[in-house]
Structure formats: structure tokens, C-alpha cells
Amino acid sequence: MSLVVDSVAKCFERFPALNGVSLTVPQGAFLALVGPSGSGKTTLLRILGGLEFPDSGSVHFADLNWLEVPARQRRAGFVFQQYALFKHMTVEKNIAFGLTVRPRHERPARKEIVRRVEELLTLVQLEGLGKRYPNQLSGGQRQRVALARALAIEPRMLLLDEPFGALDAKVRKELRVWLRALHEKMGITTVFVTHDQDEAFALADLVAIMNAGRIEQYGTPADVRRSPKTPFVAEFLETGPQQNATVQPRALNGHS
Amino acid sequence: MRRRYPTQDHPLLRIGLTAVAVGVIGLFLLFPLATVFSEALSKGIAAAWEALKEPDARSAIRLTLLVAAIAVPLNAVFGIAASWAIAKFDFRGKQFLTTLIDLPFSISPVVSGLIYVLIFGLQGWFGDSLRDANIKIIFALPGIVLATVFVTFPFVARELIPLMTDQGRDEEEAATSLGASGWQTFLHVTLPNIKWGLLYGVLLCNARAMGEFGAVSVVSGHIRGLTNTMPLHVEVLYNDYQYVGAFTIASVLALLAIVTLVLKSLLEWRYADEIAATHRH
């Protein structure tokens, strides 16, 4: 039931986004893909979600040729960087979407959907906000709606693209702890993209450090930190936090 | 004296510019419009009413409404399909398709009409086979509809392409990953996000469809009571020195346009919040 990515390569208009990436993620693990922008981490995540297709290589998950499963049948809960909530639907409708679009014979009864939505709202600590629209919520709340919406389809895998990228530092830290706790509870194989190595090392069971479409090093946070394999990794571990400061304007604004 | 805001100009300049703007609008928009109505009513309301009851006039009004009722829904569907493809997918020849959509805007309507005469007319490419099959396209309703569809094609697409491009693909991708089919995604995610743009596009398309002269003139054959639309009928009456009749039909056209605009403003006013929520700009 593990996720096996084998020599996956992908080009965009001759610009190589992924240059033969291979990794194996055990069932239920929490993997962080870390690296500077343009390193191919989001492309890999989108391939896992079925939103992008590699030019070569293979992906297997739960004994399935994952690339042959259409995106809508993968049940891969995807949380987008900008949340991609449905603006014209209430929070409840957003969360229920994945259940309501199921074919009639698979769709739960209306009452069951309502119950599940309530359950998820409690899980993401947004009780009582079900009737609101996304633009009436704060960034952190939207993030949790996006997560609840992804969890509603009982995902086989959870894919998070810079889930905290647009949030300020304080909310980031809180959500981080919460997400880790949630993962412990649900045990869903989770892949998580971030450019923030602090975040990656604090959250993940496994980290893959990516650069220019390749994985520079793959292992547990402790191993990677103890013995960086390439000069890039060593430098990335050192300069990571400073880099982060420049890409978090909102966090900086808070202090000025 | 009260101090001016840094961005505020001298009062005289402000009054002068306002006067110029009002003057231009009055002279070029309101005055001609008022003339249309006053000419129509110059012999009294009874005369205008008689002109409206005239069978050829009624036939022209019916034909115009019928053509718009066919052309506008077709172009709404074509426009949505084209903008959906252009905004949400990458494919070879996308730029070419975008240019193609603008084509009807850039060529003269008369030429648009002639194209159909050349293709479907008696001397045209399909002239013989159409005659053998007893199908009339030119100088008949199908030709008028075709010419109108061609000329008004860009309105819906032009309105939707920038809007849909701006909205990006995130929500559609989210819907897909949540298990929605293409049709469900379109119906529950894309369509609600574009409905206001779509409405504007349809209203503009409708206004032009009812008012189109050049292209329709070429394919219609000007058969009174049969293939004359309202704008063509206005011309026929005007050339016959029947000014009251011409301006009465013109007034009806103008009224249809005004109703369209009022409808649009009412909807904008009624749903201002919702429009602000779904538009990002």
C-alpha cells in the first residue's frame, strides 16, 4: 500500500520541471517536498493528484498504476495553495461538494451528508461557520475549509500545496501543530509541498529536498540534518530560514 | 476659501470639462435619440400607431425577434464553449482560435453577408445542390440567421475569455480532484462564476443581433413582409419618404435597446454584492 514514484520526468515547453524523480513513501507516512521555487515540487504533487501527467516514469499506489487512474477517481484530497474554495458556495456546500457530485448509487443520503459535514466542521474547528461564504472567513479558516473539503471524500492520499504559504507566522505555527495532530489521528498518506525547511522538518516523517527537478536527498529529518549528502542540501539547511523571511511579506508587515 | 485636495483641479477647469462631457453626450447621444422619438410622433400618436399596425412593419418586428431568439442562444452556447476551451485548456492553435473569434469584428458586415451569398447563393458553391434539395438559405430566414450569428459571434466569447482566464483553473481542478465530472464541474463551478459576464455578453449580443444591418441586408433580399428585418424596414420606409413609419420602427428598435440597458443596470444594482464577490477585479 505504499506510494512508489519511479524515474518521473516532465518538461514544460522544453523547460525540465522534473528530471527523473524516484521515491518510495510507506503507507500512512507524512512526506514533505522541500526546495526553492522552480525545483519541481509542485509539479510532482500535481502528478500525484492527476492534474498533470509525466512525460516518462511511473507512479504506483495501493497496487494500482496510479497514472492510469483518472484524477476524479483517485480520491486524492488536494489542498491548493490559494485554497481554490468555490466562492459562490457556503462553507457547508464546499465541504459537501465531493459527496454531492457522486453518482446516485454511491452518494450518501442527504441526512448522512449533513452529518458528515458537521463532523468535519468540528474536526477542523469551524463549528457554526457552515453558512458563511469563503470571502467572510480569515485566511486560516479558509485553509481549514479547504482541508475539510478534501477530507470529505475519504481520501486515499492527502496532497497539500504550500498549505500555509499565504498565512502569517503565528497562524502558520498553530496550524502546523494541528495538522500534525490530525495526521496522527487519520493516518492518511500525506504529501506536503513547502519552501520552508523549518516547516518541513517540524512536521514530516520524511523529507525530500528538491532542486532543479531532482531529489537531492531523501530521508528522515534527523538523518538529513545530521549528514547532508550534497553541498546544496547543506547550504539549503543553513540558509533556509533567511530565505523564508523574504517570502513572507505578511509576517514582516506584522512587525513593522 | 476651502483648501483643495491635492488631486483636485481648479474649479473653472472642472466646470469646463464637465460641461464638455455633458455637451458631447447631449449632442451625440441624447439629441439624436430624442429626434428619433419626436419624428415618430410628429404627426401624432395615432399616425405612429397606424405605422406600427401596418402588416409589413409587424412582419419586420416578428422576424427581428425570431432571428434574435435563434441567434442569441446559439452564440451563448458557442461563446461559452469557445471561452471554456481557450481559458481552461492548453492546446496547439489556441492563439489562432482567439484571433478567429475576433474576425467578425474586424471584417465589414457587408463582406460577412457576401460570404454566405457566395457559399449558399444560387451562383454559389452549394447553389445547385441546395436548389435540387429545395432548400432556401439566401433571401430566406436561414441566411439571415447565419449572417446574424456570424456578426454577433464575438460578443459572448469576448466577454467571457478575459473573465475565465482571470479566474484561472484552480476551482475546476479542485472540483475534478473531488470527483466531479467535466459536466458537473462546468455546471456547479464554472457557470456560477461566469454568470454575470455571460449575461452582459448575451445582452450585448442581443442588442447587436436585433440591430444588425449590413450583413443581413446582403442576404435578405429585402422582400417586404417576408425577409425585411426592422433595420432593413426602416431603410425601405425612409427611402419611400415615409418618415413617420421609418422613425416609428426606429423608435421600437431604440426602445428595445433602452430596455436591454435598463435591465442590465437593474440586475447590476440588485446583485451588486454577489457580482463583487465573484469578480476578482
Summarize this entry quickly.
The complex is a heterodimer of chains A (256) and B (281). Chain A has 256 residues and is of the alpha/beta class. Chain A has helices spanning 41-49, 71-74, 91-100, 110-123, 139-152, 169-186, 197-203, 221-226, 231-246, 249-253, and strands at residues 3-12, 15-25, 30-34, 56-61, 64-65, 76-79, 157-161, 189-194, 206-211, 214-219.
How would you describe this protein?
- Chain A is of the alpha/beta class and 256 residues long.
- The termini of chain A are far apart.
- The C terminus of chain A is likely disordered.
- By secondary structure, chain B is mainly α.
- Helices cover 78% and strands 0% of the residues of chain B.
- Chain B is built from 14 helices and no strands.
- In chain B, helix 12 runs antiparallel to helix 13.
- The radius of gyration of chain B is 23 Å and the shape is flat.
- Chain B starts with 10 loop residues before the first helix and ends with a helix.
- Classes of the chains: A alpha/beta (256), B mainly alpha (281).
- Chains A and B meet through helix 2, strand 6 and helix 5 of A and helix 9, helix 10 and helix 14 of B.
Sum up the structure in keywords.
heterodimer, A: 256 residues, 6-stranded mixed β-sheet, 4-stranded antiparallel β-sheet, 10 strands, B: 281 residues, mainly alpha, 14 helices
Present the secondary structure layout.
The complex is a heterodimer of chains A (256) and B (281).
Chain A lengths: L2 E10 L2 E11 L4 E5 L6 H9 L6 E6 L2 E2 L5 H4 L1 E4 L11 H10 L9 H14 L15 H14 L4 E5 L7 H18 L2 E6 L2 H7 L2 E6 L2 E6 L1 H6 L4 H16 L2 H5 L3
Parallel strand pairs in A: 3-8, 3-9, 6-7, 7-8
Antiparallel strand pairs in A: 1-2, 1-4, 4-5, 9-10
Chain B lengths: L10 H30 L4 H9 L1 H34 L5 H13 L2 H12 L6 H6 L8 H12 L1 H14 L2 H8 L4 H30 L2 H7 L9 H10 L3 H28 L1 H7 L3
Helix pairs in contact in B: 1-13, 2-13, 3-7, 3-8, 3-10, 5-7, 5-11, 7-10, 7-11, 8-10, 9-10, 10-13, 12-13
